Structure formats: structure tokens, C-alpha cells
Amino acid sequence: MIFGVAGAGKTTVGQMLAHDLGWKFYDADDFHPHANIEKMGNGQPLTDEDRQPWLARLRGIIEQSFVADENAVLACSALKRKYRDQLRASSDVRFVFLRGNRSQIAEQLEKRRGHYFNPSLLDSQFADLEEPTRDERVATVDLGRSPSGLVAEIEKKLQLSE
User: Fold this and answer.
1) Which of 13, 38, 65, 79 has its CA 20 to 30 A from that of 120?
2) What is the DSSP pairing of strand 72-75 with strand 95-99?
3) Superfamily of domain 2-157, CATH level 4
4) pTM (2 decimals)?
């Protein structure tokens, strides 16, 4: 799972990683209920309650991947530890945190087109973000290089490259 605040590049990096590995790719944004999409589009941050059906659906996708014995990459904000814990359907689920500062992310958000996320919500994303602690066993990758450079670092950190 690739996680981080909106605009960190989760989808781009996740798609590239999945392509490199020949794995399936899922974008958690595709699984939000319509009410969540409307809320975010109107500049209203989601609550824990808003996120619960979405997180349950994502956990179901992760569990289905294990049942089907399929490897997959999921791009998901997973801002809070309790969300990551909910998505950790197995000890085999690996997490990668795309870490960037507010100015880096804001710059990336300015370039993004065709997405429902209202950039005015960036502060609420950082307010909700609980950076992973050592005991979560998360690979942290700092932004600041090309998506292909980030993918190479992820493959190395997770020992996925040959």
C-alpha cells in the first residue's frame, strides 16, 4: 500500500510500481461513496465516520487479493494509524509512506487536473496525518525526486527488485 496526504503522488507512483512488478493496481479514490466525493469537492474534510464504509470496502479488496493469491498495489491516504491498522488484513500487507512537506505537496496539487479533491483541504490532510511510528514497519520514502526514482527506492526498500 502506498499512502500519504492528497497530492503526494500515490496514484502515479502506485501505478508505476504495479506496472513494473506486473501486479494489479487499485486507487482507493475509486471506492469512495458519492457522498464523500461531494463533501471533498465542496471543501469539507471527511470525518472518521465518513471514512468507515470506504475503509471496510478497501479491506475487502485486500482480503480478496489474498484469497485470489494476487499481488496488488493500493494507493490510499491511510492518514491515521487506526486506518492503517484496519487495512492491515495480514502481516503480508506492506506499507510505503510518501512523505513530503506542505509546500511540496501544494505544488504537486496545483499541477493536478481532473480530480474531485479540493486543494483547500490540504491543511486538514496534514492535521489528520499521523506519521507512521517505528513499530508499524512502514517504508518511508521522501518526495523530491521523479516518480521513477521513488519507485526504484520503494522496490529497493521492500526488496522487490531483482
Assistant:
1) 13
2) unpaired
3) P-loop containing nucleotide triphosphate hydrolases (3.40.50.300)
4) 0.91
